[in-house]
Design brief:
The complex is a heterodimer.
Chain A: E1 9-12, E2 18-23, H1 29-32, E3 35-39, E4 46-49, E5 63-68, E6 71-76, E7 85-93, E8 98-101, E9 105-109
Chain B: E1 3-8, E2 11-12, E3 18-25, E4 34-39, E5 46-51, E6 57-59, E7 67-72, E8 77-82, E9 91-97, E10 103-104, E11 108-112
Classes of the chains: A mainly beta, B mainly beta.
């Protein structure tokens, strides 16, 4: 199954800004954007952003999302220790008629 | 408050059938896709498939031949069956609501071992 492409790892210093990317094609990310999920070790994922770029209630404003063409981006400002987690993107692929996931990015806060 | 509670057998032998159920409490059952997703130990998320309240399904093409997702609207539950399991099917299995995965079950570790 064709998936979305995410960098395996990103490392940034405390209080810095991290931007995570998710690249697909015109059948998935380019068609309707991407959902962003955060997963801490041993816990189910939690949605950070919906495909329409809306943020669920309770998600910090330090998190923002955007899309340009076939690439979706998640930006985290003022990095905190609790931001250290795995981040996944996902969306519907109209050519596959299936949901696809990125491989995930492990964010390390130094 | 929407809650998803899942259950099912956690230890299977190769060639057996995996069976999990997810019950939905709160919110509407009729207006969403209901998903099964899995995560092998130390690896990323893999979408298994989805179902609507009316029984419309979509499956991961790589698992389609072995997967059946069904729904029981009288109980607000949906279920997963995966046949002919192997060690490669060892994973934490999650149920989740909607194509934006707004709510998740707690996860069930399913281990396939002889």
């Amino acid at each position: 199954q064709a998936g979305l492409t995410q960098p395996p790892s990103v490392s940034k210093a405390l209080r810095q800004t991290a931007t995570l990317t998710c690249t697909g094609n015109s059948n998935n990310v380019g068609y309707q954007g991407a959902t962003w999920l955060q997963q801490h070790q041993g816990h189910p994922p939690k949605v950070l952003f919906y495909r329409n770029l809306n943020r669920p209630s309770g998600i910090s404003e330090r998190f923002s999302a955007s899309r340009s063409g076939n690439t979706a981006s998640l930006t985290i400002t003022g990095l905190q220790p609790e931001d250290e987690a795995d981040y996944y993107c996902s969306t519907w692929d109209i050519s596959l008629s299936a949901q696809v996931f990125g491989g995930g990015t492990k964010l390390t806060v130094l | 408050q929407v809650q998803l509670q899942q259950w099912g057998a956690g230890l299977l032998k190769p060639s057996e059938t995996l069976s999990l159920t997810c019950a939905v409490y709160g919110g509407s059952f009729n207006n969403y896709f209901w998903n099964w997703i899995r995560q092998p130990p130390g690896k990323g998320l893999e979408w298994i498939g989805e179902i609507t309240h009316s029984g419309t399904t979509n499956y991961n093409p790589s698992l389609k031949n072995r997967v059946t997702i069904s729904v029981d609207t009288s109980k607000n539950q949906f279920s997963l069956k995966l046949t002919s399991v192997t060690a490669a099917d060892t994973a934490v299995y999650y149920c989740a609501r909607g194509r934006d995965y707004e709510y998740w079950g707690q996860g069930t570790l399913v281990t396939v071992s002889s």
